[in-house]
Amino acid sequence: MAHWRQQFADSDKAIGSHTLERDGKYQPVVVTIDKFYDDKITGSMGTEKKRFVKLKEFKLPMVMNITNYKRCEKFFNSFDEADFIGKQIVLGVEDVKVAGETMKALRFSTRPLPKVAQPTKPSIADADLPKAIESIKSGAISLEKLQSTREITKEQLKQIQDEIQSK
Prior knowledge:
- The chain is an alpha+beta fold.
- It folds into two domains: 4-108, no CATH class; 126-165, no CATH class.
- The chain has four helices and seven strands; from the N terminus they run E-E-E-E-E-H-E-E-H-H-H.
- It has helices spanning 66-76, 129-138, 143-149, 154-165; strands spanning 21-22, 25-26, 29-43, 46-55, 62-63, 88-98, 101-108.
- The strands form two sheets. Strands 5-4-3-6-7 form a five-stranded antiparallel β-sheet, covered by helices on one side.
- A hairpin with a 2-residue loop joins strand 3 and strand 4.
- Helix 2 (129-138) packs across helix 4 (154-165).
């Protein structure tokens, strides 16, 4: 189910909260700040000059506002927008009150970036262990090199060490 706002996406000049909607929920994303620039945007208040931020992950820019500048200042520990360029921050959606009405707004988060799971190394199948042991014995590969590229269980390590010592 797509957000109703997606029906007007072709005429959008900037991303909005609807951009982060996935499967009926607003999903925060890690974004990379590319650049800042001034431009005009036409809305219900007429044509206004706005500050935009281009995020590498989106085709369209985002309108910057004071709240998001303050959050960037806190997160990056700098008030200079040049210090924000090339850096990553989480972008999410929050409820805000505007003229007594609650609306969804894009907001940068001051929380730390989520930890990215490190890729796991492939394990050595027990059936392939004799071949790995022979490679170590022949000098084709060292045990350290094997451990840096493959996940080795404690039992497999003991078996490898026992075989190497009986060389």
